[in-house]
Amino acid sequence: MTILIRNIASLFNVRSENNLLRGEELAILPKLDNAYLIIENGLIADFGSMENLKSVKANSFENIIDAFGQFILPAWCDSHTHIVFAGSREHEFVDKINGLSYAEIAAKGGGILNSANKLHEASDDQLFNEAWKRLEEIAHFGTGAVEIKSGYGLTVASELKMLRVIKKLKEKSTLSIKSTFLGAHTFPLHYKENHEGYINEIIDEMLPVIATEKLADYIDVFCETGFFSPEEMIRICKAGKALGLKPKLHVNQLNSIGGIKAAIELDAISVDHLETMTDQDVADLSGSSTIGTLLPTAAYFLRMPFQPARQLIKSGCAISLASDFNPGSSPSGNMNQVVSMSCIQMKMLPQEAINAATINGAYAMELENEVGSIMKGKKANLIFTKPIPSISYYPYAFGSNLIDKVMIAGNIL
Ligand code: NIG
Ligand code: FE
């Protein structure tokens, strides 16, 4: 199937090579005005300015799409989600409105353990169908690649159940999907006083099956006071790495307890959250190849200070943006909101936010050769905007749906 998209008002994030963007590079969003794009078998085959299209015969295409007045962007790359979960937790949302803190809700068996109980009772089909609906929803919001974590299982059987659901989502969906094992999300109640016992279960019982069945690409640990210490994280990650799982880690959401330094030493692909950063944490991250993934909708939903994006960019850190879609701290996978919120609350420039949510997000899933920019050979995962006056209008008009259509692997949804 060969498709021609013609008369594109502006084609954004056009690149001839891949680079992880840091510092000032993040503000450069290359574009081509009055452009065409050719798609072959779901991949970007060529693009250029309309003047150079004359030589190409219109009748050599099976489908021609006119994008007059529209912008086209690469689809969002959401590198941190927990979209396999059962049910919802709006009662805790109301508890929080009534004054309980995230830690207080967790301490009384709510939070992650509440989702773990619900997941335990859910069948594979129920979990798959719920997650599938969320995938369809985020695809219509413009997401074309997504990372999905386990972590609401917390027993051998339930963690494997979650990961097998993610594997099935990978097989059935046209979105690019990466899978992360987050058995170390919290300690199940019966292991509350026996951390060693649960960590041994992760290392000796969960990881070997995950490796044999190829159920995960990455390993994650929630490194926070009251959850996993940096030392515990190091032990779990080393066991994961020995089986080929690279770390992508939850650190510095609530406290700064050495997670960033430990993650860098573990060669983590990314450190995610970063609401609570010391100057030393920022300095350590800027001197590393680890990506800082900011999750502003989680900060927003938990009424926490936003991530220090400007300081991170100024220090030369490579940052990406993700939704953290999960039932407890970010019950939304809308990357358009993430991009707007980054501009409004973290003072990221629209260009910086778009790069962080596309090409750098692709890097945070090691999918930079497949998605994240308009480059020959990459998947035709595209957002077509409604006619808008400038690219800054996109995050500015934060409440409007500015997407005309989304294309995933060359197919319009
Ligand atoms: O990334 N903080 C840890 N994990 C999730 C929230 C999990 C939950 O509350 O269900 C997060 O924010
Ligand atoms: Fe998360």
Report on the architecture of this protein.
The chain has 413 residues and is of the alpha/beta class. Strands 1, 2, 3, 4, 5, 14, 15 and 16 form an eight-stranded mixed sheet that branches. It has two domains: 2-74 and 374-412, Urease, subunit C, domain 1, CATH 2.30.40; 77-363, TIM Barrel, CATH 3.20.20. The protein has helices at residues 90-97, 102-107, 112-121, 124-140, 156-172, 195-212, 230-242, 259-265, 279-286, 296-301, 309-314, 335-346, 350-357, 359-363, 393-396, and strands at residues 2-12, 31-40, 43-49, 63-66, 71-74, 76-81, 143-149, 176-184, 218-223, 246-251, 270-273, 291-294, 319-321, 382-385, 403-408, 411-412. The model has no long low-confidence stretch (mean pLDDT 96). It is built from 15 helices and 16 strands. It starts with a strand and ends with a strand. The chain binds N-(iminomethyl)-L-glutamic acid and fe (iii) ion. N-(iminomethyl)-L-glutamic acid binds next to helix 3.
Name of the top-level CATH class of the largest domain: Alpha Beta
> How would you describe the shape?
globular
Number of helices: 15
* Number of structurally distinct domains: 2
